[in-house]
Design a protein that fits this description.
The chain is an alpha/beta fold and 414 residues long. The chain has 16 helices and 17 strands. The structure holds NADPH dihydro-nicotinamide-adenine-dinucleotide phosphate (NDP) and the ligand N[C@@H](CCC(=O)OP(=O)(O)O)C(=O)O.
Length: 414
């Protein structure tokens, strides 16, 4: 299985594709996905029901598995967007003529073979394949086992489209064997993978890092915070907190802990807790929050570390901005963090000192998403600093090499 899946010639074939070939292939994929939606949704529905019966995916993760019309249409539009966006491959920048006449520049190039390993979310299969195609990479995909049939179908459709437009279908592969052993074999040192993108829980990412000698970009959990500063517009703060929790509580960019400046306790704290309770969100609070709002239950240290991924939020009153930043840098996962403030100096201090992939001023953490950042489709939200940070866009699936053009120059300097 492994040698076949990781045939390096697929990487060379992907890297050779012209902009026009990629454009044609991506449009063909978008059209086929739209046409065959019924078949995809039916397969997915069966698998979903099976996972539900087996209890193999729990409530919060279960919904991610569903392929549903409006969201899938958005992903298809993302494939069309990729078809039309400028080809990142071959772009030359930073051209610097040297005193000896050498022309030194940097050319954007594909990485080679990418392995994408991710949760039971079939839409990732489509986005990841399309992004790899556009960036001239071969890709091997492995999603959560409950979605194997849907993922296989999606990859078959993609491969058929590639064949139809004359692109080698082997540049997109799916690991058919859903066992973990097959996954570890894929990631083992026997193969050569240029980048592993791992989306999922901390336990999963830790295991991938342990098993894989290849560079791993972690798209990990989001223990995200909103800090309501002393000068915040409190109506806006409430709207931001509610949006950050309620617009999609199961997603990694949802808020999990709200920090409120002590100037707002007890009055605003009790109002905010009441708003959250009205929206059926449970609040786990520090002693000051519980004193202000009796229907908050007492939080412990575990709460500050918890990604609830559901209708619960932790809340803590903090004496100042520095304590809020310290709390976030201690318990956060480097994903998305927000401050609500009318104080420009505090806004800037927060953005400089909070260590996260996306740091917002007066906006919801839910905006951390490729489409919302103008990057188009994304392969995950990197919670580490290298090689990509935040939403992993198509350009992040490339590297740059130096390209140097001379006229027979020889180096004479020591
Ligand atoms: N930053 C980002 O872009 C994203 C982050 N996330 C984060 O992922 C987490 C939840 O996702 P969830 O669906 O529960 O992800 P899981 O980590 O449970 O599942 C993801 C994949 O990991 C495998 N897996 C799970 N646990 C282990 C383990 N201990 N050892 C080896 N393999 C494992 C599963 O494979 P198998 O099928 O074999 O069980 C699955 O393919 C949340 O923290 C969420 O925030 C999710 C999506 C995007
Ligand atoms: N898809 C999300 C962002 C990232 C994501 O896919 O996260 P998750 O739902 O945790 O798998 C969004 O629409 O904001």
């Amino acid at each position: 299985m492994t040698a076949d899946v990781l045939d390096r010639s697929a990487a060379a074939a992907a890297a050779r594709l012209t902009g026009e070939e990629k454009r044609a292939a991506l449009h063909a994929v978008a059209e086929a996905m739209a046409e065959r939606f019924g078949e995809i949704a039916a397969t997915n529905k069966e698998e979903f029901a099976q996972a539900e019966r087996a209890g193999s995916v729990t409530g919060k993760a279960l919904r991610r598995m569903l392929v549903e019309r409006p969201r899938f249409n958005r992903i298809i539009d993302g494939v069309r967007w990729l078809a039309e966006c400028p080809d990142p491959v071959g772009e030359i920048s930073e051209l610097r003529p040297q005193p000896n006449g050498l022309l030194v520049g940097r050319m954007r190039v594909p990485l080679g073979v990418i392995a994408a390993v991710y949760e039971s979310r079939p839409e990732v299969t489509l986005e990841a394949s399309a992004m790899a195609l556009k960036s001239g990479n071969a890709i091997v995909l492995r999603g959560g086992r409950e979605s194997t049939r849907t993922n296989r179908l999606l990859v078959r459709i993609i491969q058929d489209c590639l064949k139809d437009v004359g692109v080698p279908p082997g540049i997109t592969r799916y690991v058919d064997d859903p066992s973990r052993e097959a996954l570890w074999e894929l990631l083992s040192g026997d193969n050569r993978i240029d980048l592993v993108v791992a989306r999922g829980s901390d336990a999963f990412i830790a295991e991938v890092r342990r098993r894989s000698p290849w560079p791993v970009v972690a798209s990990g959990g989001g223990n995200c915070h909103v800090y309501v500063d002393e000068s915040a517009d409190l109506d806006s703060a409430t709207r931001i907190v509610l949006n950050a929790k309620l617009s999609a509580p199961t997603m990694c960019n949802a808020v999990e802990t709200v920090l409120v400046h002590a100037a707002h306790a007890p009055g605003y704290v009790s109002e905010l807790v009441a708003e959250l309770r009205r929206a059926e969100v449970a609040v786990r609070g520090c002693p000051q929050v519980c004193a202000a709002a009796p229907d908050a239950t007492r939080a412990d240290d575990e709460d500050w570390c918890t990604e609830y991924l559901g209708p619960t939020v932790a809340m803590r009153v903090v004496p100042d901005l520095a304590t809020a930043v310290d709390h976030i840098n201690t318990y956060g996962t480097g994903h998305s963090e927000a401050i609500v403030t009318a104080d420009l100096a505090n806004a800037r201090a927060f953005q400089y000192t909070v260590d996260a992939a996306a740091v917002f001023v007066n906006a919801s953490t839910r905006f951390t998403y490729g489409y919302e950042f103008g990057l188009g489709p994304m392969l995950g939200i990197s919670t580490q600093k290298l090689h990509a940070r935040g939403p992993i866009g198509v350009t992040d699936l490339t590297s740059r090499k130096f390209v140097v053009t001379g006229a027979g120059q020889l180096r004479t300097a020591p």
